[in-house]
Design brief:
two-stranded antiparallel sheet; binds S-adenosylmethionine; 376 residues; globular; alpha/beta; twelve-stranded mixed β-sheet
Length: 376
């Protein structure tokens, strides 16, 4: 049976979260709204008064997985033209840009991709980024496939914590979703190793797709709680245009919270910082927390403080952008720090992106940049 909280496509073509929220246990109340970021921080602001606080850095457009919802194997096959090495930013170029973003207010740096651990010199980059004054949070999102071997080196380089993507504990389900039948056990080994070396807290990103891995939610919730990990349930998004996204494949985060709450009672937690993507919930018995990223059913554009630079040095001000700002041309064309900083500032000041709030049947087909190219 279809859950009552499913997202719907309204007659006029506007995608909306269903107005009928799922029947949830009365003790589960909505978390307090995210604080207004502009109220607490100075820095560069966009047209909607959102400060620049986070920078996501994609270090490669390549990945060793072929997740059906991100880089489906049919489209990202052997002959797919990934970026040639000279087109990818060097570690020095990335660090120079990161420093300029930090000077404009970015405090949190997340390294991503593609699969960032594919880049062999990544620990060196981590050390370079960790050396930038003003960076408060340095983290990495990975599929975990190579984490067991690299966790200690990453920690030693200055990485503070890690987010590992894992969509199921069931090999059959996970293998089909990752597109290369990568075994769950190897990702779990990576997570274990990250815990052992002290990369903390560890968050686990689980994308939930209707009819694909809903049955994996409870096993994942139990696993995360039992191992002191923060499970983050992510609604399937229409990023890029190659995953064949359909609104009916989205499982609203509220349904997932309600599902977990039946067995593992939850209560809301306030946002831990302004602009936090995930809405946080705590296990009532004090055994841990989960987060939900409801970017489809409950868009959080109003609190979005994230900028992204792609592996080839494009600045994107929205995950759903159709075009970026070419910072590599400036880096390689001899522009000064001041010129590049002014360009970043201008791009941020004119930013008025709020894709998830205006998502509709018309926007779904826009030529959006793919997640592997932009950085997840
Ligand atoms: N390769 C790394 C990984 O697997 O974590 C980093 C890049 S990946 C694009 C970053 C995150 O984006 C993953 O947690 C993945 O589940 C999420 N993601 C990819 N496609 C998505 C989509 N269509 N909707 C929601 N999340 C998506």
């Amino acid at each position: 049976m279809r859950p009552t909280g499913a997202a719907n496509l309204a007659p006029e073509g506007r995608c909306v979260a269903a107005t009928a929220r799922p029947e949830r246990p009365s003790r589960v109340v909505r978390p307090r709204s995210t604080p207004d970021p502009s109220a607490t921080h100075p820095g560069t602001f966009d047209r909607l008064a959102r400060p620049l606080r986070d920078l996501r850095i994609s270090v490669t457009d390549r990945c060793n997985f072929r997740c059906s919802y991100c880089m489906p194997g049919e489209l990202f096959g052997r002959d797919f033209a990934f970026l040639p090495r000279p087109e990818i930013l060097t570690l020095e170029e990335i660090t120079r840009l990161a420093r300029l973003f930090v000077a404009q207010g970015a405090e949190k740096l997340r390294i991503t991709g593609g699969e960032p651990l594919i880049r062999r010199d990544l620990p060196k980059l981590v050390a370079m980024l960790a050396g930038i004054q003003g960076v408060r949070d340095l983290t990495l999102t990975t599929n975990g496939s190579m984490l067991a071997d690299k966790a200690a080196e990453l920690l030693a380089a200055g990485l503070q914590r890690v987010t590992v993507s894992l969509d199921s504990l069931d090999d059959h389900v996970f293998g089909a979703m990752n597109g290369v039948h990568f075994p769950v056990a190897r990702v779990l080994r990576g997570i274990d190793r990250a815990r052992e070396v002290g990369l903390a807290p560890i968050k686990i990103n689980m994308l939930v797709q209707r009819g694909v891995n809903e049955s994996s939610v409870m096993p994942m919730a139990r696993y995360a709680r039992d191992h002191g990990l923060i499970l983050r349930l992510i609604e399937y998004m229409d990023v890029g245009h190659s995953n064949g996204w359909r609104l009916e494949d989205v499982v609203p985060a509220a349904d997932l919270v309600a599902l977990i709450d039946v067995e593992l009672p939850l209560e809301p937690l306030p946002a831990s910082y302004a602009g936090e993507v995930a809405t946080r919930w705590r296990h009532r018995d004090g055994s841990g927390e989960i987060g939900v990223i409801a970017s489809v059913s409950r868009p959080f554009c109003g609190a979005c403080t994230r900028a992204r630079i792609s592996a080839e040095g494009q600045l994107y001000t929205c995950l759903f952008a159709t075009k970026g700002h070419d910072l590599r041309a400036m880096l390689r064309g001899g522009s000064s720090d001041e010129e590049i900083a002014a360009s970043i500032e201008r791009a941020w000041q004119v930013r008025d992106d709020r894709y998830s709030e205006i998502r509709s049947s018309h926007t779904v087909g826009l030529p959006k940049v793919e997640m592997n190219a932009m950085g997840g």
